[in-house]
């Protein structure tokens, strides 16, 4: 283990080493090309390439250098480690609130996700971000433990121009029906040909909205305080969200406008 950690440290202590090995794993380069790409001096490159040759991570080929099979393995493995740590850093301050028990996909797929957090001046920024996405979308598909009045308003305002599908638990429907204005708005929404709302007999521990090509996840703490909106366009996250929606959809019943009459 110590020897392996020494090799990780050897790479991690020099961004030039990482850059050179990644470039040589991709294709052959001359020293001049490496110098131009990395900004490293010829003396530095000489030491790096010598160290790599000693480890049999690179070999000379023609007038340049190329990574060996094991050098490519190291480059790819180190890049995976960097990507994992990048993702962890992005998620660190919201990780404890993520409903990971229900998120059965590799969290590495959230690398590069857009995270919208509340601020002192915009405490509702995550929800406002989702509302903006919904307002500009052609298609919205959601499964959530709740549908707040603002999301309902946006969906109702876009009927005819937007396809809207949602699966909600009975508790969410009851909360909307308990408010006369929201009940009327919900009735108008489900009466539209382009909209469908279904009722799930059980709990939905997530608040997921697929907005065109973006999967949006609203993250709340145990008190229900909104902590972040996480957006991902990764195909694996999209596939997960679509599969989850279809599961809830199959186990739910349609909500009719008639059932919402006063």
Explain this structure.
By secondary structure, the protein is of the alpha+beta class. It is elongated and about 80 Å long. The protein has an 8-stranded mixed beta sheet with strand order 3-9-8-7-4-5-6-10, with helices on both faces. The chain starts with a helix and ends in an 8-residue tail after the last strand. The chain is built from 10 helices and 10 strands. The longest helix has 23 residues, at 69-91. It folds into 2 domains: 2-86, Winged helix-like DNA-binding domain superfamily/Winged helix DNA-binding domain (Arc Repressor Mutant, subunit A), CATH 1.10.10.10; 93-260, Endonuclease Chain A (Endonuclease, Chain A). The model has no long low-confidence stretch (mean pLDDT 93).
